[in-house]
C-alpha cells in the first residue's frame, strides 16, 4: 500500500474506507444535510466536526441541530473540516495508537470507560505498553474481526501508527467490528 504522507491524503482515503471500520462520515455540510443521518442514527446521535489539518481544532458532541452552526464557525475561521458521527465513547474498552517498534508492538493510549474522545482520555489517563504486553492488551480489547484487521493494517502500512477505539459493542460502518480505526499516519 502507498504510505500516508499527509492529513489531506489520509482523509481522502479514510472516506473511501481504505482503512476499514470507521465512523459514518460526511465530506461537506451539504452532503450531511442531503444524507439526513438523524433519520437512521436517531436524533440523539451526536456529531464531531473534524479537522483535515493535523493538530487542528475539533468540535465534539455537536447535536444534529447545531451541526450547521458549528460547521460555519469552523469554515469562517479558515479551517478545512468534515463531519463524523460521534462514537459511543461511554462504551470504550481501549483507545490509543499502536505501531511496530524495535521491541515489537508499541501502544500508547488510555484504558477503560472514561466516556471521552481520545484526545481528552489521553490527557486524563495515559498509558503505554511494549512488546507482548502491548499485543495482549490490544488483543483482549478487540473482537476477532477487528484484531485481524489491525494486524493487516500494521503489515500493509509499515512504518505507520494506527489510531483506534475499541468498544464493548460493535459500532461503525463495517458490521461485526467493535473497533473503529481513526487514523493511519507515517511516523
Walkthrough of the structure:
With 187 residues, the protein is α+β, with helices and mostly antiparallel strands. The chain folds into 2 domains: 24-85; 89-186. Helix content is 33%, strand content 30%. It contains 7 helices and 9 strands. It has helices at residues 7-15, 29-35, 38-41, 67-76, 118-124, 131-141, 144-156; strands spanning 25-26, 46-51, 59-63, 81-85, 92-101, 104-111, 127-130, 160-167, 179-186. It has a 5-stranded antiparallel beta sheet. A 4-stranded antiparallel beta sheet has the order 1-4-2-3. A hairpin with a 2-residue loop joins β5 (92-101) and β6. The model has no long low-confidence stretch (mean pLDDT 94).
Structural class designation: alpha+beta
Main sheet: strand order: 7-6-5-8-9
Rounded mean pLDDT score: 94
The helix fraction, in percent, is 25-40%
**Individual helix count:** 7
Largest β sheet strand count, sense and barrel closure? 5 strands, antiparallel
Order of helices and strands: HEHHEEHEEEHEHHEE
How would you sum up the global shape?
A: globular
How far apart are the first and last residues' alpha carbons, in Å? 16 Å
Beta-strand portion reads 25-35%
Strand tally:
9
* Spans where pLDDT lies below 50 across 5 or more residues: none
Based on CA atoms alone, the radius of gyration comes out at 16 Å
Counted up, domains total: 2
In short:
The protein is α+β, with helices and mostly antiparallel strands and 187 residues long. Helices cover 33% and strands 30% of the residues. The protein has 2 domains: 24-85; 89-186.
Amino acid at each position: 500500500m502507498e504510505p500516508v504522507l499527509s492529513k489531506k491524503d489520509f482523509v481522502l482515503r479514510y472516506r473511501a474506507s481504505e482503512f476499514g471500520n470507521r465512523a459514518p462520515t460526511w465530506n461537506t455540510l451539504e452532503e450531511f444535510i442531503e444524507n439526513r443521518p438523524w433519520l437512521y442514527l436517531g436524533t440523539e446521535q451526536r456529531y464531531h466536526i473534524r479537522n483535515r489539518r493535523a493538530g487542528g481544532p475539533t468540535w465534539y458532541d455537536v447535536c444534529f441541530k447545531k451541526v450547521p452552526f458549528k460547521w460555519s464557525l469552523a469554515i469562517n475561521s479558515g479551517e478545512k473540516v468534515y463531519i463524523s458521527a460521534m462514537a459511543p465513547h461511554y462504551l470504550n474498552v481501549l483507545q490509543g495508537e499502536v505501531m511496530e517498534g524495535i521491541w515489537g508492538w508499541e501502544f500508547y493510549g488510555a484504558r477503560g470507560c472514561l466516556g471521552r474522545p481520545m484526545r481528552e482520555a489521553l490527557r486524563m489517563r495515559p498509558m503505554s505498553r511494549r512488546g507482548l504486553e502491548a499485543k495482549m492488551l490490544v488483543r483482549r480489547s478487540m473482537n476477532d474481526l477487528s484484531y485481524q484487521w489491525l494486524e493487516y493494517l500494521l503489515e500493509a502500512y509499515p512504518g505507520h501508527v494506527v489510531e483506534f477505539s475499541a468498544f464493548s459493542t460493535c459500532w461503525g460502518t463495517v458490521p461485526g467490528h467493535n473497533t473503529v480505526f481513526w487514523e493511519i499516519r507515517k511516523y
